[in-house]
Amino acid sequence: MDRHYIEFTTPETVDVICDQLPSPADDEVLISVHHAGINRADLLQRLGLYPPPADASPVPGLEVAGEVVAVGARCEHLAVGARVCALTHGGGYATLAMAREDHCLMLPDTLTTKEGAALPEALLTVWYNVVERGQLSAGDTVLIHGGSSGIGSIGVQMAATMGATVLSTAGSQARCDAVSALGAHFVANHRDGQLIEQFTNAGYAGEIDVILDIAGGDLMQANFDLAAPDGRIVSIGVMRGMQSEINLATLFMKRLTLTGSTLRRLETASRARCFDAIREQIWPRILAGEIRPIIDSCYPLSEVLAAHEHMRVGTHFGKLVMECQTMG
Ligand SMILES: NC(=O)c1ccc[n+]([C@@H]2O[C@H](COP(=O)([O-])OP(=O)(O)OC[C@H]3O[C@@H](n4cnc5c(N)ncnc54)[C@H](OP(=O)(O)O)[C@@H]3O)[C@@H](O)[C@H]2O)c1
Question: What residues make up the domain containing 320?
Answer without folding.
Answer: 2-119+293-327
